[in-house]
Specification:
The protein contains nine helices and eleven strands. It is of the alpha/beta class.
Length: 248
Amino acid sequence: MQQMKIIAVIPARYEATRFPGKLMEMLGNKTVISTTYENVVKTKLFDDVFVATDSQIILKEIEKNGGKAVFTKHHETGSDRIAEAIKNIDCDIVVNVQGDEPFLNKKPLKELISVFKSDKKKEISLASLKTKMFDVKEISDPNNVKVITDEQNFALYFSRSVIPYPREISKATEYFKHIGVYAFRKEALLKFTNLEMRPLEISEKIECIRYLEYGMKIKMVETDFVGVGIDVPEDLEKARALLNIKKP
């Protein structure tokens, strides 16, 4: 069997809506984006690692530290940005690592890749991560995307609402948070960019719903990984606290 070529791409916007410039903030003596890039390289899971960005600032930051970066045009979604970046790159599987997830480690990435190694019939378009939630406030928070799956862990639906809805309280009901780390088949990712948004994706503002609306299969992998995504300034302080770093 021919060995799959697996690459990682880190989509990186400078002008993030809730925290502009967050990827260039410092975590110790490195920026957030450089920390993420180096951690992905250190896993040694990938044939290559790139940052895909529409920012010259981020492009120069990665290149000056010896990394690889691809300049892209502006895109509404990270998937579209990655698709442009990998269009002419020879690969089979593309793993999307968010630039603001500097603590992502090897174990969940390896588990995502293993999904495709066991998918002999190539039925799976993409794989992603989910983690169990227990706190009522966390479950009801619309910023946390929830996912429900079938018995084989294929995604049935994603929502910002509470799913399943607890019409009757039961200890057997489990709630899972979607963690936005994806592994795509290259052809599925390129297909995605040519598909129009449909009503469910537009309503929920969750891009992976587009795959479901067009009948593609998403395999969910349960993980106990809990990172610190840098979404707002308070998250940056949490990340610094974890690393025992004082504010610069």
